[in-house]
Amino acid sequence: MSSRRDFIKYSALSASALTLNPSMLSAIESGEMLKRMIPSTGEELPAVGLGSSATFSSVAQSDDATGLKNVLTTLLDNAGTVFDTAPRYGGGAAEEVAGQLVGELGARDKIFWATKMNVAGNDGGTADVEEARAQIEASFEIFGKTPIDCMQVHNLGDLKTQLPIVAELKQDGRVRYTGTTNTQPRRVGQLLEVMRNEELDFIGLDYAIDNRLAEDELLPLAQERGIGVFVYAPFGRTRLWSRVKGVDLPEWAAEIGVNSWAQFFIKFVLAHPAVTVVTPATTNPKNMLDNLGGGVGPLPDSAMQTRMAEFVDALPSA
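The chain above was modelled as a monomer; its predicted structure follows.
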């Protein structure tokens, strides 16, 4: 049975001191990390990165962040660069701790920093302009880098007030890319409206093999409008792990170089051409490397995607 635990044996002494199963090592060495272009500029990004919600945020609030440092090192040592965060993940700890760790690694300019801002809340609140600007300045201080690579308005928060602020930052050269995010199905219509009417470099959303709502309108519109896409939850957070617990990978998954369920789920998401970067969160260096393996080797064609989705759809719901 293939699993995330089987992918590597990790030495905590160094993220570069990795001992892999020979067949998996061969698969990684024989291919390069998939890169996707940011539609608005043509800049290429590695298609698999690291998120900091959920588990990352929890560990960031603890006294021992060694594991997070190893995760970031593993990301950077294996062709990854994209780190997605937000000021309020983990009560602010995720962004602050990550900034400190990346500084200790001397890697501030190696990371593609994708952060967010929102002082309005997620349900129609009003943003205070000065509070919004203060939150942004705090992110600049934490990252120690100007420009910040990407700043999005989190969960469509008071876009009338907050989107012009990030647009101003881009115009002033302090932010390279802007956009907005939404992870709430009931607000898909609002996100579609914003995509049609505003100049956005990126959107961020949830998309997974058992959560394919984005395929209906959001991803096609992103392609049409030339908007990059961050995918935040390719594992359905923990939902998909519950569904495949005790289930063997189908043998035919090897046809696209899949060695684990993580790679199965990530390759399905990356097969959609509108997706720019997938950023699952993890606190485990082994899982980080496993995730990065989802961006190496062939992606499923439409027939394989259908086969993959049908396999998962037939499993009991979590």
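The domain at 45-313 is CATH 3.20.20.100 (TIM Barrel).
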